[in-house]
Specification:
The complex is a heterodimer of chains A (about 240) and B (about 270). With about 240 residues, chain A is of the alpha/beta class. Helix content of chain A is about 25%, strand content about 25%. Chain A contains 6 helices and 14 strands. Chain B has helices spanning about 10-15, 35-40, 55-65, 85-95, 105-115, 130-135, 185-190, 205-210, 245-255, 260-265; strands at about 20-25, 45-50, 55, 65-70, 75, 95-100, 120, 140, 150-155, 160-170, 175, 190-200, 220-225. Classes of the chains: A alpha/beta (about 240), B alpha/beta (about 270).
């Protein structure tokens, strides 16, 4: 089956989820939302919580609108457990995985979701803010970061402002359309490159130096993963991010 | 119980320049959109808006220059609708003050308000530049018991929570179907709550299953019946998707700085 970056990213995010984990995604998160549904379709027992409050919403019911905090994340759920409580869960060390994104990221896992250019109180471009990230990243056991663009404007040596930052003591992984970085010793290390990309392409589009001559290629999506992905997201909500 | 039923105009009259409003909903879901448009037409000034994740209703009040301060964790529209143009413009032109938190920090500030205490410790926030930037909102303290360091936020007591719900009775007992976001907390933190509701239902319906009433009447100062009051934003069970044409009309209006014409055209006959 043919696949592109949208499918590869959904599969890569789903593969990050381990049996028995409690997983949170926020708003504007079609790719992570689809990934949680894919993990469930693959038979992985994960608990999904979200801003909408639905615990384990019915993954067999495909989303028809792109919001990831709306009715689709509530309908068919087994319980109503709202965002306030999800944050409490994270703060008490009971949230395993959080999916978050970035507009700028540094190799040390500093994330800018606030602004670029000018100064904080009169920025050239005001961003939407980091939502839950400044609280969640320091307290969640594992943070899975995704962004559907990989370029030198967003993967930068230094961020202009750290809305939040990785905790070097916790697990932190970054998935882009080209590759996967994983934090080790406080620095993001290139772990693998997606089959349709290359080390050269990653280097050319990353704003920090990558000191590697070779890197493993990620496993491509399996036939089963692609079939189930189509089943959980037949209307292609994941594509809105690309 | 006494009736809180009133017209949209009378409810909007309750809001005064400089007040702090908690705006219900989340991004483009269940915003008090119609009420926000009513406020935006009034030339109000210096409103402060709080909440975890703001969307259309708050952005409109920024675009109309009715607000001068926004407390938020996230302020934007999801996915295809992109960044919030009114808030961006206000910040980029320097007249709108961003008091940015994690969503958690904003929730903690409302909890502090609801609990009747002046500040609230909040988890996380370490290594965030936001903390040092706004000492009027964030401080770091040591636990008086263990010495553990913790970030604290100043409590917020909104003058009004402004919420759109699916069902309310004439006294202000209200049911929210589906995601509640921070609406319930907002009603507890605010001095009073203004409700717009899709439908008016008899109080007997509330008595049948009281646990479905998430907002009790004594917190409420106004009930306005506004069918489709969340449009263009989603309202579970009522309005399943963002009203694309209406949303694009809004984005266009902010882009071209023609909010007056947009507001004139948006609602047809006044309620």
């Amino acid at each position: 089956m043919a696949y592109g970056a949208a499918e590869m990213m959904c599969v890569a995010l789903a593969r990050e989820l381990r049996e028995g984990e409690v997983v949170f995604h926020g708003l504007a998160s079609p790719v992570p939302m689809t990934a949680t549904k894919l993990a469930k379709a693959l038979g992985r027992q994960v608990t999904v919580v979200s801003i909408a409050g639905g615990v384990d919403p019915d993954w067999t019911k495909p989303a028809t609108v792109t919001t990831t905090v709306g009715p689709n994340q509530f309908e068919g759920a087994v319980a109503d457990y709202g965002l306030d409580e999800v944050f409490d869960l994270a703060a008490t060390d009971r949230l395993d995985v959080t999916f978050l994104s970035f507009l700028q990221i540094s190799p040390r896992g500093e994330i800018n979701m606030s602004f670029v250019g000018g100064c904080y109180d009169k920025p050239k471009v005001r961003f939407p803010g980091g939502a839950g990230s400044a609280t969640l990243i320091p307290v969640t056991k594992r943070t899975v970061i995704w962004r559907t663009k990989h370029d030198r404007r967003s993967l930068v040596e230094e961020v202009e402002f750290a809305t939040t930052a990785a905790d070097p003591e916790k697990e932190f992984v970054v998935v882009t359309p080209l590759c996967i970085f994983r934090m080790a010793d406080g620095v993001l290390k290139l772990e693998s490159v997606f089959p349709y990309s290359s080390l050269d392409e990653v280097k050319a589009n990353t704003g920090w130096h990558i000191d590697l001559d070779e890197v493993p290629t990620s496993d491509p999506p399996s036939e089963e993963e692609l079939v189930l992905l189509e089943r959980v997201d037949p209307h292609g909500m994941r594509n809105i991010e690309f | 119980m006494k009736s809180k039923m009133m017209s949209l105009a009378d409810a909007a009259d309750l809001v005064e320049d400089g007040q702090l409003l908690a705006i219900g909903g989340n991004a483009l879901n269940r915003n008090p959109a119609r009420f926000a448009r009513e406020l935006a037409r009034r030339g109000l000034k210096d409103l402060k808006l709080c909440g975890a994740a703001h969307g259309y209703a708050s952005d409109l009040l920024c675009a109309a220059k009715a607000a001068d301060t926004v407390y938020f964790g996230f302020f934007g529209f999801e996915n295809e609708y992109g960044l919030a143009p009114g808030m961006r413009k206000g910040c980029q032109e320097g007249w709108l003050k961003a008091v940015e938190g994690s969503c958690t920090a904003q929730i903690a500030a409302l909890r502090g308000g609801a609990y009747g205490i002046p500040f609230m410790p909040v988890a996380g926030l370490w290594r965030s530049d936001l903390v040092d930037l706004r000492p009027e909102f964030y401080r770091i303290m040591e636990s008086p018991f263990t010495g553990e360091r913790v970030v604290c936020v100043k409590s917020l007591v909104p003058d009004h929570a402004v919420l759109h719900v699916q069902e309310a009775d004439e006294f202000g007992n209200a049911r929210i179907t589906g995601p509640k976001y921070q609406d319930v907390l907002m009603s507890r933190a605010a001095r009073k709550t203004i409700l717009t509701t899709e439908r008016l239902v008899p109080t007997e319906k509330m008595r049948d299953i009281p646990e479905l009433t998430s907002i009790p009447y004594f917190l409420v100062e106004a009930v306005v019946v506004v069918p489709e009051g969340s449009r263009p934003t989603i309202c579970m069970g009522e309005w399943p998707a963002v009203d694309d044409a209406a949303m694009k009309a809004y984005l266009e209006a902010v882009q071209t700085d023609d909010l007056t014409a947009y507001l004139e055209a948006a609602d047809g006959k006044e309620l």
